[in-house]
Fold this protein.
Amino acid sequence: MCDGERCAFAAISGMLTRAMTKEGTLGPARVWALAAGGMVGGGIYIALGVVISVAAQWAWLSFVLSGVVAVISAHSYARLSTRFGQSGGAFEFLEEMDRDGLAGSLSWLLILGYTLTVSVYIYAFGHYVAYAFHGGVVLIRVLGVVIGALLLGLNLAGLGKMTMVELIIVSANLLVLLVLAGYGLARWHTPELTAGIEPRSPLGALVGAAAIFVSYEGFQLLTYEYEQIRNADRIFTPVLVSSAVFVVFVYVAVTLGATMFAGALTIVEEKQIALSIAAERAMGTPGLVVMTIAAGFATAAAVNSTLYSTAKLSARIARDGELPSWFDHENRMAVPDRPLVLIGVLATALALIGSLSSLVEAASLVFLATFVTVNLVCLQRKEGPRWLPIVGSILGALIGLVLVVRLAVTTPIPLVILVTLALFVFVGRPAILRKVRTESPEEAASGSEGEAT
Amino acid sequence: MTRLLALFLWVWVLGCTSDPPPARLHLVNVVQGASSLHVAICSVSVPAECRALDVAHASIGPWLSLKPGIHRFEISTEAGMLTTFQYGLGRGGAYALALYGIADPPVRIDWRARARELLGGIEAPLVAGYQVAHRMIGMRVPDPSAPARVRIANMDPGATKIAGVIDFGMQHVQLAPVTYAGVGDPVEAGRDEGRLLLTFAGSPLTLAERELALPPGSSSVVYVGALTGVKPVVILDLLR
């Protein structure tokens, strides 16, 4: 039973959600767009300056190298999701393999990785929007808090998954990026690739691939929605793989196209707003306005979808007893409110601290480890051609190794933090789960009823 | 689709047929231990195209107009060659190339420095200790009506971090601490004139101060070089 106001609110929210998601059934076009948008949404806006700094004229090759791992991993994810017929991604695959402990530990680290990713998207949102208004640090932080709070509120109200809205944002964002890329490529001038910087060896491309791997993590979110996909067993693999291939092309085109306008040095020096600078140089103030709108909506959508999916994943993991049952709590809108608030508040607070690029690179290690694990599971389950997961695992492990060395040499503190957290998760997690309740009171009650019966 | 392709080809042909505008570059010499530096700049694609000039200590050289492309730079003193390196220059770009460090004969760069440079990118310069090094800075000019932008470049060998504050009277703008060989993020100045106070990060003592004229739409870099006596070399590079 609910009172009048509550019922009205629930009804409106339910109607909106149903209208936006068509009863939660996702067709191939939507899945494709959401997968592509999940990757492009935040990735390219934060990665361009970092990759050019490391790989210079080979930045495009960095996106190809990490793209190969992403495409192969997307194939493995899709095949395994289809095989098991369940939402849940890597956590589900490992559980199906009776590797509950590893599934639990990896999922804890994934939640940490997603939280850091959300904080970087908030950070990027603040920078892109504040730049258009000549805003300084204060405005960037205010915008970060506002977008964090707004999206948290929307999610708590049950409006977190509006796929039609996401679809429109994703499509518009891709269109803006492709126009910029196409216009830039049409003005091709090779010296711009090293304008103001020292040319570097092709080896830099491998380091670049390691630094920006997080740009490809977005497609995983679709594996958490597998059960919402219409004819998933038929369409999921081709749709997910083709969207990943498309994103590799988008990243390569945008990297080259944007550099033609801004020049390599400007993109490195202004890495937080690199695409706004490129668009401004390409089309003046209208270009800046369009890119600011695209970046603002794309990063906000990326925050929203990552927040929503991570909260759902956390609740799911808690239901399986791999997180404290505190996480498995829904509000009156059937939204996992506790993980949502925890992740949203933590990510917003982290975004206020400042530059997170090193921490995000450390988080990339989590995603790389997950992708390699999924490829190995795929290899073991003999899903598809064997050489694919072998190549994905080897290249993924190589990029991961380069990332570890890069972090150890350049910014060891985030690496130490990540290793400490990983040790804590792998060693301390079982002890924590033994000490706290890992099933909800309802489950506990039904369990004891069952025993009594 | 055909129209889009035609438009793409038209823009592409137009871009290919027009000569790219030259890049503009000037050199900033804050190298300690030499009264001037001799700089030779040669195009890599056309080796015969070379320019040579001397840049006095604590000064900014004249603007050079250079063909876009990769250029080789050779830096020497009367005592001999200090360093050589390459940079790309883009069409119509404006750059400042800062030369800093101590003018000692070059020493072998060990593998750790090379690994750091490979892994760290252009923000981890390949250099041994305080040997002469270089840093290219983009002199991007903002919108003419936009507030002036100011950055600090810490080129003072031995200095840990240098911070700054621009005193506009009622308003103060902080410039975040910058480590040696680093260039800070640009900050936007609120007014046209102010006084810059430089300090070692965390120290209450003023290291140097300087009046700044910051017209809207300008971009400034404040280079802080090695101490000469009790005050460091401070060079203001302003582009509008």
